[in-house]
Amino acid sequence: MVVIEKALLIIILLRLFSGSIELTAAALMFKFNDLEKAFYINTLLALVGPVVLIVTTGIALFGLAEKISVLRIICLFCGISLILFSLRAE
Questions:
Q1: Measured between alpha carbons, how far is 27 from 37 in angstroms, rounded to an integer?
Q2: Could you report the per-residue pLDDT of 43-58, keeping only the tens digit for each?
Q3: In a domain, 66, yes or no
Q4: Which domain holds residue 64?
Q5: How much helix, strand and coil, in percent to the nearest 5, is found in the chain?
Q6: Angle at the Cα of 66 (from 69 to 4), degrees rounded to 5?
Q7: Is residue 1 domain-resident?
Q8: 53: part of which helix (H) or strand (E)?
Q9: Is 63 helix (H, G, I), strand (E, B) or coil?
């Protein structure tokens, strides 16, 4: 029997949930067949991606806390912050 870490299982489930949201959004865009509604749905998706990124990274860091140095954790959070900042930059 394969044993899977609890943190890894939560990350996997969150990513499956996130993917399901993406597929549902694509199906809704197809169903509505309207550019304005597709734009609105896409805008809502822009909120889901960063939230899932932050939550899954936080769970992974919590699970790896004793294995990763503080400097690497700081670098990871700086990288995530830059990614989120670049999404807002024009």
A1: 12
A2: 989 888 888 988 998 8
A3: yes
A4: 6-88
A5: 85, 0, 15
A6: 125
A7: no
A8: helix 35-63
A9: helix
Give me 4's structure tokens: 């899977």
Which of 53, 42, 61 has its CA nearest to residue 14?
A: 53
Residue 42 makes CB contacts below 8 A (sequence gap 6+) with: 25, 29
Both tokens of residue 47? 């909120």
Asked if residues 7 and 60 have their Cβ atoms less than 8 Å apart, the reply is: yes
How far are the Cα atoms of 5, 10, 35, 69, 72 from residue 45, in angstroms, in the given order? 29, 21, 15, 33, 29
Residue 67: inside a domain, yes or no? yes
Overall domain count for the chain? 1
- Tokens standing for 9? 């299982």
Q: What is the pTM of this model?
A: 0.75
